[in-house]
């Protein structure tokens, strides 16, 4: 195993052991100027599941993901991916979140080769650690579970409406 693969494996294990955003916060009744949504997703292949809540602030500069919280159970990949995603999208505008979601999906389709663009992979931060996961089709769904919950939560919040 290369040094890079070992580092990536350690990032995933660290996020699985010390997840960011774990523990559902807030409620379905958002504060003034905020939108909230919740989604429960299950990976039927392995039984991993996640319930995710998103808080979106509606400001003069557009809508921003102001908070993500989640609760889930499953393998270290699904739990670490939700943690990394929470850290990555919190505080970002919806256009940037959509871009990061697309780039992460591209990474998961790379079959372990990565994206071939250091700047794009740098934008993913710790999420680039999932490059190796993309070699294993059965694990890709695990890595995407939290992202699916985020996208559904945003849709349910009404934040994606024009």
Structure commentary:
This is Iron-sulfur cluster assembly scaffold protein. Pfam families: NifU_N (PF01592). InterPro entries: NIF_FeS_clus_asmbl_NifU_N. It is a single chain. With 162 residues, this protein is of the alpha+beta class. The chain has one domain: Alpha-Beta Complex (Sufe protein. Chain: A). Helices cover 44% and strands 20% of the residues. Helix 1 crosses helix 2 and helix 2 packs across helix 5. It is globular. The termini are far apart. The mean pLDDT is 91.
Summarize the helices and strands and which ones pair or pack.
Blueprint: H1 3-17, E1 34-42, E2 49-59, E3 62-73, H2 76-89, H3 94-108, H4 118-123, H5 137-157
Antiparallel strand pairs: 1-2, 2-3
Helix pairs in contact: 1-2, 2-5, 3-5
InterPro entries: NIF_FeS_clus_asmbl_NifU_N
Protein name: Iron-sulfur cluster assembly scaffold protein
Organism: Isoptericola cucumis
Summed up:
With 162 residues, this protein is α+β, with helices and mostly antiparallel strands. 44% of the residues lie in helices and 20% in strands. It contains 5 helices and 3 strands; from the N terminus they run αβββαααα.
Percent strand: 15-25%
Largest sheet: 3 strands, antiparallel
Q: Look at the structure and give the CATH class.
A: Alpha Beta
Q: Give the strand tally.
A: 3
Q: How would you classify the helix and strand content by structural class?
A: alpha+beta
Domain NIF system FeS cluster assembly NifU N-terminal: 7-142
Protein name: Iron-sulfur cluster assembly scaffold protein
Pfam families: NifU_N (PF01592)
Region (Disordered): 18-44
